Amino acid sequence: MVGICSRWRQIFPEKVFNSGKQHDTVKYLNYSEHLIAYSDFGKKELEQFRNVDSYIYHGVDNEVFREINLEKGLKKNLFPEFDNPFVFLSIGDNMVRKRYDLLLKSWKKFKTEKINACLLLLTHPVSPVNGWNIPLLLKRLGIEDSVFYNKSYLKGVGLEIEELVSFYNLADAFIMIPSAEGFGLPYLEAMACETPVIYSAYGTPAEYIADC
Question: Are 168 and 41 in contact (CB under 8 A)?
């Protein structure tokens, strides 16, 4: 596991937008008699506003997210332009805080003709609100030949679970470097599939990945 230190810090939002409406999160916290956070980090953030009883980590089903044997030649079929490439995988919702712009700029610096690798993005290519235009970023950076994405990937639909597990197993490394993150469940799913991860070393992900 490789951590990347980040200069951003997650701040618990007093107000959030959902379905086009603004909601007062602190007000909703006060409706609860007991609060259970998703991590020690989350507990400390919530305690800026009221007492939190404890925290329980999210988890994944290890009988579902697991290491599997993929058919031989799958990489060659998926990426015929490459000779058995090292595959980096990134999965996440297409929103500003996921920082696909930084990921792709970093990829441009990393990728050269001498490095037999490609980057696979599992996200919706164009976000109409509060996100990134992936095809436009690739074109501006001139890296269309080494970054792949599913043009039909739909927000809120995603992939079938077994298909998702196959992608985690296809990848040689999983990478996600958002500027803010709640829990970061894809990291946990990748690790359950025995796929190494590259992550932003702050918040909850740094808390549970560092112990692995």
Answer: no
177 CB-near residues (< 8 Å, 6+ apart) = 4, 6, 99, 102, 103, 106, 198, 199, 200
pLDDT of the residue at 156: 56
User: Model's pTM, two decimal places?
Assistant: 0.84
Which residue stretches of the chain have pLDDT < 50? 3-10
> Dmax of the chain from CA atoms?
58
Token readout for 163 is 């298909």
CA distance 172 to 88: 6
Q: So what's the pLDDT on residue 7?
A: 44
In three-state secondary structure terms, 201 is: coil
Among the listed residues 72, 47, 86, the one whose alpha carbon sits nearest the alpha carbon of residue 174: 86
**Residue 196 is encoded by which pair of tokens?**
């190494």
CA nearest 66: which of 187, 191, 176, 170?
A: 191
Helices (H) and strands (E) in the chain, counts: 8, 10
